[in-house]
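hey so i finally got around to running both of the ones u sent me last week. sorry it took forever, my laptop kept dying halfway thru and i had to restart like 3 times lol. anyway pasting them below in the order u listed, first the sequence line then the structure token line for each. didnt double check formatting much so if smth looks off just lmk and ill redo it

first one:
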Amino acid sequence: MVNYPHKISSKKRQSSLSNPKNFANRGMSFEKMINATNDYYLSQGLAVIHKKPTPIQIVRVDYPQRSRAKIVEAYFRQASTTDYSGVYDGYYIDFEAKETKQKNAIPMKNFHLHQIHHMEQVLNQKGICFVLLHFSSQQETYLLPAPHLISFYHQDKGQKSMPLGYIQEFGFKIETSAFPQIPYLDVIREHLLGGKT
């Protein structure tokens, strides 16, 4: 018997090769798909949209080895607003991305009041603001304009879940593709800007 590094025997290795796991429906994470889409838009000169960094304050760092630092204590410096922002054809773009395993609704507890206020402020400045909602069990993605999210949130301060039917009525389904993976600019151009760009 041949032993491989980390003491994995050839028998174990062969059994794992003979019973491959099916990852066909897993794909990459929703966030990675959005980031890849944004990279594509940037490379094509279509838009400059980036994920906002989370503002944290590092309090304590341990050094278990000279070459490795480990953050052991940190806190958020301020409440974050939305996940992504940037510019598309002279328009300010600001959006949040949420993913759920639920089939028929998205929990509104995933949205916070300060995010809702931020979206209202973006809309007051004539920015384009929305949320990308991904239902992982069905592999469906929707773009819901911020006014509809805000309206639903204010019904009961985000205590209940938003039904898929509401999202389908007021939002736009995004068909995923290879390049870009989540072509949300198409929805913005056709539905939010009325084909202006």
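and the second one:
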Amino acid sequence: MHEGELELADDAAARLIIGRFPEFALLPLRPVHASGTVNRIIRIGDELSARFPLLPATETALAAEAEAMSEFAQTCTVAAPQPVGIGEATSEYPSAWAVQTWVPGETASHDHHEASDSLAVDVAGLIVSLRTADARGRVFDGQGRGGVLTDHDEWIGLCVARSGHLLDAPRVQRLWRALRSVPPSGPDVMSHRDLTPFNLLVSGDRLVGVLDSGGFGPADPALDLVVAWHLFDGPRRRIIRDHLDSGDVDWLRGAAWALQQAMGLVWYYEDSNPDMSALGLSTMHRLLADADLASLL
């Protein structure tokens, strides 16, 4: 999926895991085939998993992620993975990697849960809990989404240019221009920063787990609202908005962040990860079909 992506055979992963964690030597190892774009995942027994980055990562970076994961788990309204340990880079695999606890559940789907009232309420409750966590004086670190919308103008321009065969590119560009200058709705709050359906675990129509919390940190209060557009139809988005008491500014900035993320998924993963591309397209269709956003064009 990425230029410079690391390769790792199953037997090499087993050697790395057992070499670093000999206490796991008798546990079965099973590759997990998922739609993720950051890590290759190996299940260790029933309660653990190893995550091998697809692109090289340092022990320092994974230690910071582990700290964020622990903080997130203390705040999250449902189960979340906890860090177990970190493996160092070797000649066989030139990246640090990590082991964490396994959280059971099914991955949410952008087209299976769009009309679920109960899941919308659960997701809204999750966002409320994260927003009220103590930021301890921290502010956005400048990495990725969650800061200044206009910093992403060049990226959106590239995405629009690459997606004309999949979407109404001029309409997408007009919507971005309408949303990019919406001011912040308030100071940074604690945010998951990547609330896509692939990071939400469900049982039926209830939220039971949240994955990939290593980016938990302060960001734009509207950033986690991307999940409303990724996962739900209009009436369920209304449930989330009402539950959070989101004003116009907060809601429009959430739509802007959803557009920024979705447009990257649409074309970048068109061939290498069709599930991720399909999520991006679904989100963009919701944004472009929304009557309130259409009035901005």
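quick thing i noticed on the 2nd:
The domain at 106-294 is CATH 3.90.1200.10 (Aminoglycoside 3'-phosphotransferase; Chain: A, domain 2).
anyway thats it, ttyl
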